[in-house]
Amino acid sequence: MSGTSVSSALVRMRGVRWIADDGMRTRREILSGVDLSIESGERVGLVGRSGAGKTTLVTILAGLLEPSAGTVTWGAAAGGTGRPEPGSGAARQPPPAVGLVFQDPERGFFEESVLEDVAFGPSNAGFSDKEARTRAREALRTVGLEPDTFGPRAPETLSGGEARRAAIAGVLAFGPSLLVFDEPSSGLDAEGRDRLREILASLHERGIATLLVSHDLPLVLEECDRVLVLEQGRVAWEGPPAGLAEGAPRSWREDMAAHGGELVALAAALRARGLLAEDVPPTPAAMAEAVMRG
Q: Structurally, what CATH architecture does the domain formed by 9-231 represent?
């Protein structure tokens, strides 16, 4: 669990549980008491096997799903307040400035032009048409799409990578303090991955916190300062990327086909032989460079 203080945290989850099909014979506990906090401007990665509860966790984090138990509290930096325990009778508070970019978000376009689609969110949230369009133009620039060129275009004329960036701009236009990406590199080619890295760097320069939820372990380890491993509905480990090789759950080592297991095992073996320094993250590029340098 992070040592982030309540006052400096954008969001804090304590003992969060979520139960699917509650009250039925098919009842399953997806989250089993998650503790999590994210600071302003922090770059965090969330990894784990399929079915570990990652998407459920971030949906709760963004205020789109009510937890079965536990609390979600937003700090002053996010402009939000705490959410009470279910059944407490207290009023449900509005979600904070958390933007959630779902997997394959480009499938959600519905306006006639890119600019109108990106401006829809802030306009629907109560901003004037002028302010919504201003926010949309700024968001498009942030993701590397010139608004005068791409704004008038129909969304269906965009390439896959351009559409992904336009979808991210649609979330950015809200002005979130924390941007959550669910499998952001899914379906992207090498150029698209480079563009994604540029967007993440731009967000970091602007002080926007990011949470990358991904099976793309190299991307997470290269772009994040802190990594959390979700295992069986709990945060099984968290720490700096370089510590993942030693801190990964045992199940990752026992099943080399599991997410990231082969990289983690290789890094641990290299370190045991004195071939890899402790501060080198277990990514292919970083490990190859370190070994080549001797």
A: 3-Layer(aba) Sandwich (3.40)
